[in-house]
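Thread: "does anyone have the structure for this chain?"

Original post by V.I.:
We have the sequence but no experimental structure in hand. Need at least a predicted one for the grant figures.
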Amino acid sequence: MPARHLYPVPCLVPVTLVTIEWDAAPGLHLARCGACAAHFRSSRLGEVEAWADRHHCDPEMIALLAETDLRRAA
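Reply from O.Q.:
Generated one for you, tokens below.
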């Protein structure tokens, strides 16, 4: 199983975290937004951190995902 190192990086949207992890199998860093599901992959950590710093969630995507979660919970 590949080793994954996770640490949160604050996103520009309040109460949203972009998680950055290392996936050793393909040798890529992955940034993933927990609110809107946007993501970015690169072999360069600096590029992934820069994406995380610049990331702005799409409000329509957040609303759609929230609606989907509510339907699933019902």
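V.I.: this helps a lot. The CA atoms of residues 12 and 65 lie 19 Å apart.
O.Q.: and The beta strands are 6-10, 17-23, 28-33, 39-42.
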